[in-house]
Amino acid sequence: MIIGRRGGSDVLGSLQKLTEASGWSGRLVSATAGAIAVASGFFILSFYSVVAGWALHYLAISLQLAATHPDGAAATFEALASDRETSALWHSIFMVMVVGVIAGGVQQGIERTCKVLMPALMVILLGLLGYVAAAGGLDASAGFLFQPDFSKITADAVLEALGHAFFTLSLGMGAMMTYGSYLDSDAHLIRDQFAIAFLDTTIAIVSGLVIFAVVFAMGATPGAGPGLVFITLPGLFAEIPGGAFVAIAFFALLVLAAWSSGISLLEVVVAVAVDRFSVPRPLAAVGVGIAVWILGMFSAFDGAFLDFMDNLTTRYMLPVVGLLIAIAAGWLVSKEDREAGFRALPGGGVRLAAVWTFTIRWITPTLVVLVILHGLKIL
Question: In the chain, fewer beta carbons within 10 Å around the N or the C end?
Fold first, then answer.
């Protein structure tokens, strides 16, 4: 976000502006990082939209209980995943939702929508937390999530968690940098970044408590991935009191979260078209949206292609961009630009800035390299 605000442009433009004094090395790193970041956002949205479309489908049929019958949950998901036309339809609807917001602009589109989405998401999440607290299963869920089991903390687990952080915090895809360029000059970047990390972690914890409380309350075995969301939970919703309403709330929560993420992903690409090529925002949003929609059709038609795109972006592209941005921020951006966000802190934030500089120069690149090697199956 510091690079975005200081650069005042899209991810590619901001990186190039702040590293131009470093000569050819700055140009090479910024161009490579910016290009891969934009491509990552484009690729991720193409298959993410398909998965978000599945959530829309489940939300639409929740009142009918078709997706929440315990004997039909697995069959329902298998039928959806193999139904090209239905997957393509919901993928298309989700892309229209995202494009509509981006075409409206930063303030009238993104900001206005997120002011509604985020509170709605929190209200639904807290409502679900209250439900599971009353229904039971919350103690078992908390124990499952927080009771230490050091045998599970392996090198693979740590590296998987680091890789997951790239996706959940939108790292390596230029979203934070793009949003940073829209901040006012008096924005408190350090405070805002801590708030983002805190809220993201809080929402993840509460979501985990809710999900596994339902699982344990019904004596089911906890799982992970799409199977948990689209098979296990829908089956359990059919067995709990008020399950139809819980299903509606849960999938509404999933759709809202996916919508906000989709907006961020598309904005990264659209911002490049608007800032660098002076394309009118509505035209850029529609044009990029159509291109993403076309690529997404391959994921809607072929689950293997969806898995390929997922692995390509999350295991390789995002960590590579993260490494290049760490190199740029730590070594190629000037000290004045790099530490700009710390000046609002007491004493100018000198000590914290020094710690951050050391971290971004040495610790972050080392950890990201380990993530990349893990993705390549070298570690």
Answer: C
